[in-house]
Amino acid sequence: MSRPDLPMLSSCTALLRRVPFTCAFLAVMLAANGLAGTFSGHIDQSVLAARGIGVEALRDGDLSRFVSAIVLSHDLPMLLRQLPFAALVIGRAEWLWGTWRAAGLFFAVDVMATLVLLAAVAQVPALATLAETTDVGMSLGGFGVIGVLIATWRHRVPAVIAILALVAVKYALAPEPLADAGHVIALTLGFCLGLGRAYIPGLEKAADIAHQDPSHRWAGRQAAERRARRPAAPCQQDGQQ
């Protein structure tokens, strides 16, 4: 006799197989922050100085900071916010576009937004006070992916304006100049990439089917597979009562 929880387990396994990059990214975030001491409350300051990103931090020429900073968080509350944020945003992108395309877009937008932000800090005198700030977090890549996703929507312009308004409200209540500016830059870059998705291999076709809920298609396939596994009912003889 089959166990009733096996179909649910099989469904969860099938879901996870669709988003391997998301699962791996979350696992790396947990491991990296565990090693950095974030679970104790705050990231170890020596780790922040060695692996964070910033204008002054990059003077050592270590470009691996672009990657290491993405998977770290300043403190435990930030980590607890970023874990579901990464799961939802990156997971949705991977489900729609595939593993390599979603991972490439995520890292590309994060790095581009970081470079634009750091260049502005280094060149604009009014931002000079931020040059010594060393930051970590995956939110720039996340906001970039949100921008790409929004660009595929029918009401894309009101949606991006609404998110920018939320960033402004957040800045008014709890200002983080470097991070908040980075979110605006990343969202804008992602939105522009999404508008030009015809020039990104495979993204245009993926964006077309993004308007259909993939969970419905997946559920339909699962139902069809279950029906196919059921034993066929014996046919009744003609004339049999």
Automatic annotation (TrEMBL):
Species lineage, top-down? Bacteria, Pseudomonadati, Pseudomonadota, Alphaproteobacteria, Rhodobacterales
Q: What broad class describes the main subcellular location of this protein? A: membrane
The membrane-topology field of this record reads: Multi-pass membrane protein
State its location(s). Answer: Membrane
* Domain of life, source organism: Bacteria
Species of provenance? Sagittula marina
| Gene3D superfamilies in the cross-refs | Rhomboid-like
Keywords (alphabetical) are:
Membrane, Transmembrane, Transmembrane helix
Return the annotated region ranges for Disordered.
214-241
Q: What is this protein called?
A: Rhomboid family protein
Q: Which residues cross the membrane?
A: 102-124, 136-152, 159-175, 181-200
Q: Can you quote a single GO CC term?
A: membrane
| SUPFAM superfamilies found in the cross-reference section | Rhomboid-like (SSF144091)
